[in-house]
Amino acid sequence: MGPVVERPAEPGTSSSVAELELLKQRAAERIDEAAERLGALSRAIWSAPELAYEEHGAHRELTRFLEREPPAASWAVQPHFGLPTAFRAEWAPPEAAAGPGALQLGFLCEYDALPALGHACGHNLIAEVGVAAALGLRAALEAVAAPPPVKVVVLGTPAEEDGGGKIDLIKAGAFKDLDAVFMAHPSQEDAAYLLDVAERDVTVKYYGKASHAAAYPWEGVNALDAAVLAYNNLSALRQQMKPTWRLHGIIKNGGVKPNIIPSYSELIYYFRAPSMKELQVLTKKAEDSFRAAALATGCTVEIKSEAHDYYNVLPNKTLCSAYMENGKKLGMEFISEDAMLNGPSGSTDFGNVSFVVPGIHPYFYIGTDALNHTEQYTEAAGSQEAQLYTLRTAKALAMTALDVIFKPELLERIREEFKSKLQEEQLLNTPA
């Protein structure tokens, strides 16, 4: 452990600034001390990719790491928290009573992979960032002579790529006592936030009637024709879509043999829009297109939405600004506000979390221009080069968490912005 630092004095004084900077330095040093072990953790997850809700190996690696990371058995780990492959690990300074009034800060880990591509979205690095930032924050607090009442929480959140594990955990109450949450996602650049959008996933099933395609095709009802018409209907719909809307899908089942009229077909589609209100409008248009294809072919249709919609992320610019300030000290070069507002984005179940608790979900460069969800990004996510940028990001998150703890006025602004953004979103999504 490094030298003991006095608890930072009244915010704004020169002594308080210097003391806080010493704590940030200690957080960064602790992350560097654990760099080799953190890299091995990330590599172990990357080497054995697992799909949503099936991340048993990654779950085991993460919980064992926290149970064994020196000092021994120092994290209170609940290995199966709300979901079989979720976990919760906690630490609080023994000198400070972490009672009901304690500030609770959560660091989120993702670790599921993509089918066929493996960790092409770098979730092994997300897990590493979450654990590393928590280690850094803890070390800084251990260096304080009289630490404030605070609890550091690491949450393992499975199934981001499919299903929405964070939404399951919201329903299980995992976020109800947290004051702020932190995570970071690999990308092609450093961005304090991107406008991740709302998403709904649907499965569409058409039921027709089989018949011999050559001898008596008139006896059949072609479910593949319905699927193709639906696909084309949605392609035509794009012409009348807002520039910020997205829809994309596949035909998963189109029949079994060319000389049998297909009696069953299946499509999977994702719809995305900037808000839940706009997502409802897009969904209605798409579902009308699906039903039109059924009517045209004589098929019956079943449209089923997945259990969870992903909400758009509510950015907390107060928290993002603090993160950028810390990141710049570490050498990060952030893209502009205009690029953040107008750049490409996806969807994440962190959006749902951002409606429950203030949080930050920045993106970070990992040393490559390769795009997420490609084989090239899978390779980059497992590279040694990515480690420098990953641990730099963890340091920035830990430093930002220290700002939240020792700058009460910052925490108050974060909370006020969260309430304001939530009210704006509720008004936006209220039916006219």
From TrEMBL:
<keyword id="KW-0121">Carboxypeptidase</keyword>
<dbReference type="Pfam" id="PF01546">
    <property type="entry name" value="Peptidase_M20"/>
</dbReference>
<dbReference type="InterPro" id="IPR002933">
    <property type="entry name" value="Peptidase_M20"/>
</dbReference>
<dbReference type="InterPro" id="IPR036264">
    <property type="entry name" value="Bact_exopeptidase_dim_dom"/>
</dbReference>
<dbReference type="InterPro" id="IPR017439">
    <property type="entry name" value="Amidohydrolase"/>
</dbReference>
<dbReference type="Pfam" id="PF07687">
    <property type="entry name" value="M20_dimer"/>
</dbReference>
<keyword id="KW-0645">Protease</keyword>
<dbReference type="GO" id="GO:0006508">
    <property type="term" value="P:proteolysis"/>
</dbReference>
<dbReference type="GO" id="GO:0016805">
    <property type="term" value="F:dipeptidase activity"/>
</dbReference>
<dbReference type="GO" id="GO:0005654">
    <property type="term" value="C:nucleoplasm"/>
</dbReference>
<dbReference type="InterPro" id="IPR017144">
    <property type="entry name" value="Xaa-Arg_dipeptidase"/>
</dbReference>
<dbReference type="GO" id="GO:0042802">
    <property type="term" value="F:identical protein binding"/>
</dbReference>
<protein>
    <recommendedName>
        <fullName>Xaa-Arg dipeptidase</fullName>
    </recommendedName>
</protein>
<feature type="domain" description="Peptidase M20 dimerisation">
    <location>
        <begin position="202"/>
        <end position="294"/>
    </location>
</feature>
<comment type="similarity">
    <text>Belongs to the peptidase M20A family.</text>
</comment>
<dbReference type="InterPro" id="IPR052030">
    <property type="entry name" value="Peptidase_M20/M20A_hydrolases"/>
</dbReference>
<dbReference type="InterPro" id="IPR011650">
    <property type="entry name" value="Peptidase_M20_dimer"/>
</dbReference>
<comment type="function">
    <text>Catalyzes the peptide bond hydrolysis in dipeptides having basic amino acids lysine, ornithine or arginine at C-terminus. Postulated to function in a metabolite repair mechanism by eliminating alternate dipeptide by-products formed during carnosine synthesis.</text>
</comment>
<dbReference type="GO" id="GO:0004180">
    <property type="term" value="F:carboxypeptidase activity"/>
</dbReference>
<keyword id="KW-0378">Hydrolase</keyword>
<feature type="coiled-coil region">
    <location>
        <begin position="17"/>
        <end position="44"/>
    </location>
</feature>
<keyword id="KW-0175">Coiled coil</keyword>
<dbReference type="GO" id="GO:0051246">
    <property type="term" value="P:regulation of protein metabolic process"/>
</dbReference>
